Amino acid sequence: MPVFQSASHYCVIECTGNDSVDFLQRMTTGNITSLKSGEYLRTALVTEKGRLVDVLTVLRNDTRNWLLLCTASQAEAIYRWFRKYIIMDDVQLRFAQEYHSVELWFIGDSVLNGHRFLPSSNHVLEFELATYKSIAAIVSQSPDHWDVPCIVVTVLSNLTKEKHDDFTRAIAAPSLDDEQRHCLRVHAGIGCAPNEYNDRYTPNDAGLNAYLHLGKGCFIGQEVIERLTVQQKSRWKLYSISTDQAGYDELRSTPELFTNSDRDPVGHVTSVAPPCTMFVPSWLDYRGLAYVASSIGTPEQLHTQNGVPVYLRCAIRYEQ
């Protein structure tokens, strides 16, 4: 299976200071204190009401230096969100603009130039190519049960722009434009902010249970998240859906989903994409990602406002 590269959709925020570990521990849903130097984890950032802000990748350089990879479109909001909670803490935040990055999209096998990226590993990989050194970490991936697994890796370097461009050319992987990247993301079942990850939904709704470490101690939104988890009271569930071209065309402008027995919408489509056979020959259908009321069962057929059938393929879920 191939590997592709695209311009990175992630931004790097550096967090330093004597209190940086405790600060990140209480600001995110992940167990930050478990990380050793050279390790990383995926974690959620939530509001006081337990609603999603974004999903971050946190890299530990040493005891007082951390790199936070966040969605570029959300970076300013995330920076302000962190700043809001710095009171007496010895914590400094800045946009680490000296880092250049490129995304690698692995479909199926995740090997490039002898480097293998394992979803089960949390070690930052030192990546060397054409005499240029960089570091790499997995920033997203398709759910465990997916038909054709996809892994997204961000490669970071503090090279000059010219040397970074040389480095990306040395990767020798075909480039994705934004439309192709979106299509691949949707077919691979990968959510992103602000489409799937926003303050309308909780990590439980989005199937991000693997990113919740409730026993680690207090964090922003913990009480709400723990109650929802224990009582299994998620209102929504994120699904991969499929439809035909008529459904695709309609859902791009009218994203509501209905059942035959409900006049009111029972779901909302957050992303939709055409067939993706240029990447995987079996991805022939029009697919999307949608939040559907948790009371709706997987076999149930939904439809658009104009009655075009929409099928629930499977729920998006990341397990512990």
Question: Can you lay out the helices and strands and say which pair or pack?
Answer:
Blueprint: E1 3-7, E2 10-16, H1 20-27, E3 40-46, E4 52-62, E5 65-71, H2 75-84, E6 92-95, E7 100-107, E8 111-112, E9 115-116, E10 125-129, E11 132-141, E12 150-157, H3 161-171, E13 175-176, H4 178-187, H5 222-231, E14 236-243, H6 245-251, E15 256-257, E16 267-273, E17 286-293, E18 301-303, E19 309-315
Parallel strand pairs: 1-13
Antiparallel strand pairs: 1-7, 2-5, 2-6, 3-4, 4-5, 7-12, 8-9, 10-11, 11-12, 14-17, 14-19, 15-16, 16-17, 18-19
Characterise the protein shown here:
The chain has 2 domains: 1-232, Probable tRNA modification gtpase trme, domain 1 (Gyrase A, domain 2, 2-Layer Sandwich), CATH 3.30.1360.120; 235-315, Aminomethyltransferase beta-barrel domains (Elongation Factor Tu (Ef-tu), domain 3). Helix content is 18%, strand content 35%. The chain is built from 6 helices and 19 strands. The chain has helices at 20-27, 75-84, 161-171, 178-187, 222-231, 245-251, and strands spanning 3-7, 10-16, 40-46, 52-62, 65-71, 92-95, 100-107, 111-112, 115-116, 125-129, 132-141, 150-157, 175-176, 236-243, 256-257, 267-273, 286-293, 301-303, 309-315. A hairpin with a 5-residue loop joins strand 18 (301-303) and strand 19.
